[in-house]
Structure of ABC transporter permease:
Amino acid sequence: MNRNKITRWLAHYLPAIGLFIGFVILWQLAVSVFDIREYLLPSPGAVVQAMFSDEIPWLGHTWVTALEILGAFLIAAIAGVMLGMAIAWSDAMSRALTPFLVFVNTLPKVAIAPLFLMWMGYGIIPNMLIGALIGFFPVVINTAVGLTQIDKDLVDLGRVFSAPKWKVFWKIRIPNAYPYILSALKVTATSAVVGAVVGEFVASQKGLGYVIITTQSSMNTPVAFAALVWISILGLLLYGIVAMLSRVLAPWAE
C-alpha cells in the first residue's frame, strides 16, 4: 500500500475511528467521575473483559445469531428484488402488489413474532423470517424505483434496435437499478440484525439476544453490553460486505 492509498484510507476512516475513541473515553469518564454502579452502566474495560470471558459460550451464541442475520438478509434481498422487479414489469402487478406490501409492512413485527413461534416452534428459521420481514420493504421500493426511474432515451434506443421487453429490462433497467438496490441493501443489513435479535428475545434458546434476556434476571450488565457489542460487530461486518459489493457493481454511484 503506497503513501497515497494510506492517506486516502486515513482521510476516509479517521473521523469514524476518532468518534468511536472519543465515545469510549467519555463513557469511561462518566463511569469514573459519577461512580456509576456496574449493574447500571459497566465500564468499557468490564465490557471487554466480559466479551472474552469463559462464563458465556460466546462462539456458539455468536454463530447462531450470525446465521440468523445472514439468512434474514438473504431472504429479504432476494424476495425484495423479485417483488420490485414484478412491480416494475407490469402496471397490473404494481396495482395488485403495492397495497398488499404496504399492509404487510405496517404490521407490528414484535406482535407477529409470537405467531411465528406458534407456527414453526423454536429455532433459527423463525428468527430469519422475522428479520426478513423487517428488512425486505426498502428493497422492494428501491428496486421498483431504480427500474422505472430511467432515462427515456436509453429505453427508446433499445426500441430502435427492436430489442424485446425482457432484453431492455435485463440490459438497461437492471443495471440502472444497481445503486438503488445496493442502497436499500445497506438499510436491510441493519434491519436484519434488529429482526434476528427481536426474534431471539421472543423465542430462542441460543443466540446473543437470548444472552441479553437471560442476564436481566441476574443483572449481569457487563455480559449484556458485551452481547450488544458482538451484535454490533456482526452488523458492521454485513454492512461492510454490502458496501464493498456496491463499489464493485456500481462504482459510478460511489
Summary: The longest helix spans residues 165-202.
